[in-house]
Design a protein that fits this description.
The chain is built from five helices and seven strands; from the N terminus they run H-H-E-E-E-H-E-E-H-E-E-H. By secondary structure, the chain is an alpha+beta fold. The protein has one domain (5-186). A five-stranded antiparallel β-sheet has the order 1-2-3-5-4, with helices on one face. A hairpin with a 2-residue loop joins strand 4 and strand 5 (110-116). The protein is globular and about 50 Å long. The relative contact order is 0.14.
Length: 190
């Protein structure tokens, strides 16, 4: 019997946590992956944003926090903890189906996040708003920052956000309220 992606990913995350010991920047992570790939036949496929480094496997991904550089060094791009917070809010609001499920763990002192692998990411032919209801679109706009094709995939024809660490609710509580009652993306739509 095949184990769940979460069980398999947690085992591999422990291996990666050792590999990534001492890594903090994208260059550190990429160098560690290069060393790994030089000695293994099954190479690691990776991606990264400004705040997390991602190892991509056939049916899951594992994310590790990085130290953001430049204009993102203030932490506004989010982290594993903020992604976990947004997912908990989605569960409470019955909107978890819009997000790739996050499972957080820790190995060797390094926190990681596991998600199922979602297909259709970076599909420039689709706009995520066409693949959800009006209520779902409003929830996403109100709760998730940085909604673009590189952070959105599709599961069973529905939108599935894979990067939702930029917490719009937290950002709103730290800044002045918007003068517009409607989320900006929906002005004039519907």
């Amino acid at each position: 019997m095949k184990s769940s992606y979460e069980v398999r990913a947690a085992k591999f995350a422990a291996v990666l946590a050792c590999l990534f010991a001492g890594c903090s920047t994208v260059d550190d992570f990429e160098f560690a992956v290069e060393c790994y790939n030089d000695t293994h036949t099954r190479k690691l496929t990776t991606a990264h944003g400004v705040s997390r480094f991602v190892v991509i496997r056939s049916d899951y991904v594992i994310k590790f926090d990085m130290v953001p550089q430049g204009k993102w060094s203030d932490g506004s791009a989010g982290c594993i903890a903020s992604e976990e917070r947004v997912y908990a809010r989605a569960v409470a609001d019955n909107m978890a189906h819009l997000l790739a499920k996050v499972t957080v763990g820790e190995a060797y002192g390094r926190k990681y996040a596991i998600m199922p692998r979602v297909r259709g990411v970076d599909d420039g032919w689709r706009w995520w708003g066409d693949h959800c209801t009006r209520e779902e679109a409003y929830w996403l706009e109100d709760n998730v920052g940085d909604l673009h094709e590189g952070n959105v995939g599709y599961r069973c024809g529905k939108v599935c956000v894979i990067d939702y660490a930029w917490d719009e609710v937290e950002d709103r509580t730290e800044s002045t309220p918007s003068s517009s009652p409607l989320p900006s993306i929906f002005s004039g739509v519907w």
